[in-house]
Amino acid sequence: MSRLLPLVLSLILANPALAEDAPEVRFAQAVTAFEAKNYALAAGILESLVAASPDTDRYAYWLGKAYGRQAEQAGWFEAVRLAKRTRKALEKAVALNPRNAEAVRDLAQFYAEAPGFLGGDPAKAAQLRAELTKLEARPNP
Asked: 32: domain CATH number?
């Protein structure tokens, strides 16, 4: 995808009518940064997308992923702060779209693995895994 981004950006600059898709370009930049393991940059872009489009579950989901990756690499105090942000972003993504299987799976994993003081909850993890099983059993519409 990283080779595609310069092409998309040049098309937008050449055609202002495409500027309406600017959030999608920013999202592509965030995913590219995430894939390049620049999680701080990805999170920064995604934070602005979530602020501008608070009802878009995939922005919240990817923000949770970026926070989670940052937490994995951070020192203890920063990891605690980022883990809380991870949970909140994933919870928001699932609340916005309970059929987002990736978000449900990642939130269930968070609940299963995180300690209680960070919001871990084995019962919530089990409930989400049951929901995920139902989601995966449904045919795609």
From this structure: 1.25.40.10
pTM (global) more than 0.70: yes
- The total of structural domains in the chain comes to 1
120-138 burial, b at 16+ Cβ within 10 Å, e below that, comes to bbeebbeebbebbeeeeee
Q: What residues make up the domain containing 72?
A: 4-137
7: exposed, middle or buried (Cβ count in 10 Å: 0-12, 13-18, 19+): exposed
Q: What is the pLDDT of residues 16-67, one digit of tens each?
A: 555 556 999 999 999 999 999 999 999 999 999 999 999 999 999 999 999 9
Q: Which amino acid is at 94?
A: V
Nearest C-alpha neighbor of 120 from the set 83, 65, 94: 83
Token code pair at residue 11: 């098309």
